[in-house]
Amino acid sequence: MEINSVDPRRWMALAVLLTGTLLPPLDFFILNVALPAIRTDLHASPADSQLVVSVYAAAYAVTLILGGRLGDIYGRKRVFIFGMLGFGIASALCGFAPSPAVLVTGRLLQGVMAAIMGPQSLASIHAIFPPEEKNRALSFYGATFGLASVAGQLLGGVLVSADLFGMGWRSVFLINLPVIALAIPAASLLLRENRAEKSDVLDIPGAILLAAGLLAFVLPLIEGRENHWPWWCKALLITSIPLLLAFWHYEKKKESRGASPLVYPSLFMKSGLRKNLAAAFFFYALASFFLIFAVYEQGALGNDTLATGLAILPLGIGFFLGPWCSPSIVSRLGSRTAAFGMILEVTGLIFAAILALNGRTSYLPLPLFIIGLGQGIAVPALVRLNVDQVDPRFSGLAAGLVSATLQISAAVFVALIGGLFFTLAPDGASAPEIQLAFSISASAIGLSLGVAAMLCWKRSLK
C-alpha cells in the first residue's frame, strides 16, 4: 500500500535506491572506454560493437514505462530487487561472454533489467519522502547521474588498464556483482514496500503494443546514421506511427471501460504534465553533445580517446556539483529552478561554440563546467515538476514516463544533431570544417534547451 507515514529509515533507504540509479548510466559510460579492448579480444566486427551499445540503449528506452508501471502494480521494493538481481545476472553474462553474440544478449538483458530497476528509485523517493525533504532527496538523485558520468569515464579506463586478475575489459561488467551482492540484502532490510492501495492488473496487450511501437521508432534512430539509413530503418519509422496510434486508442478504450491500462490517457489531460514532458524532451538534446564533442576533440584538435575523456570531465564535475546547489535555488526560484539550470546550459553551449569557432580551446573547461552545472541543477527540478503532476499511486508510471521521454529524446537528437554535424563535416573534413560544424551543432542544442526552459518557466508547482 502507499506510504502514509514518514519512514524513519528513509535516508538509509535512499542510499540503497541510489544504487539502482547509479548502475544503468554507469554501465553506459564505462563501456565506451572498454569497446576497443572488447573488439580485439572477441574479434568483434564494427557492427557487433555498435550492437553492444545500441541494444542496451534500445531495450532500456522501450522498457522504462513498463518498468515503472510494474512497481505501481506489484510493489516498488519487490520490483526493485527483482530488477537488480536480473541486472546482476546480465552483468555476469556480459562479463563471462565467450563471443560477441553472448555479449549482445547480455546487454539486451541488462537494458531490460535496468529499465525495470531504475524507475523504482525515483518512484520510491516520491513515495517515502515528505514534500519538504523531496528537493534534498532529489539532489542526491541528480548528483548520482553526475557521479556516473565522471566515474564511468575514469573507472572504465582504470579497470581495463589495470587488468585485475587478468580480466581486462570483463571487469567493467563484473564490478557490478559485489555492489549488487551488498545492495540486495540492504534493500530487503531497509526498503518499505509501497504501491497503489488498489492494485491494477498488468495490461499485457498494451505493453506489447507500446514496446513494438517504441522499438520501431527508437531502433532506427539508434542504428540509422551508422548504417547510412537503410530501407528497413525508414520502414520501421513509418510502421511506428500506426503502432503507437493503435496503442493510444487501445489505452483510451480500456480506461473508458473502467479497466486498468498500462498508461492512463486521462493523466495527459493535465496541461502541466504535457508541458513538462515536452520540456524534458527538448532538454535532453544535450545527449547529442557528447557525440559531437568527441568528434571535435579527435578530428579538429587531434586528441586521442583518453585525452577526449579527460576533456569532457569538467562537464561531469559540474553535473555532480549542480544538484547540491538545487535546494537553495529552489528556495528562491521555486519551480523556475529547472528553467534557470537550462539557461545556464544555453549560456555554456553558446560560449563553447564561440570559443571553438575562434580556436580558443584552452578556455573550453569553463563553459563545459557551466553546462554540467546547469544540467545538475535542472535534472532534479525537472523530474519533480513531472512527478508532482501525478497522483502518488501512479508515481512509478510518472517515473517511467519522464525517464522514457529522456531516452527517446536522446535517440532523436543524436540522430538530428548528429545528422546536422556530419552533413557539415563529412568523413575527411578539415579541422576548420569540424570546428564550424561543432559550433553550429552546439548552438542548435542550445536552441532546443531554450525551448525547454520556456516550456517549464512558470510561477508555482501545481
TrEMBL record:
Q: How does it sit in the membrane?
A: Multi-pass membrane protein
Pfam families noted in UniProt: MFS_1 (PF07690)
Keywords (alphabetical) are: Membrane, Transmembrane, Transmembrane helix
Q: Does the keyword S-adenosyl-L-methionine apply?
A: no
Q: For this UniProt entry, what is the primary localization, expressed as one broad class?
A: membrane
- Please report the stretch or stretches of sequence annotated as the Major facilitator superfamily (MFS) profile domain: 13-460
Where are its TM segments located?
12-38, 50-67, 79-102, 108-128, 140-160, 172-191, 203-222, 228-248, 277-296, 308-326, 338-357, 363-385, 397-422, 434-457
Source organism, top-level taxon: Bacteria
Its localization reads: Membrane
One GO cellular component assignment for this chain's record is: membrane
The answer on whether this UniProt entry bears the keyword Membrane reads yes
Provide the GO MF annotations for this entry: transmembrane transporter activity
Protein name in the entry: MFS transporter
Organism lineage reads as: Bacteria, Pseudomonadati, Bacteroidota, Sphingobacteriia, Sphingobacteriales
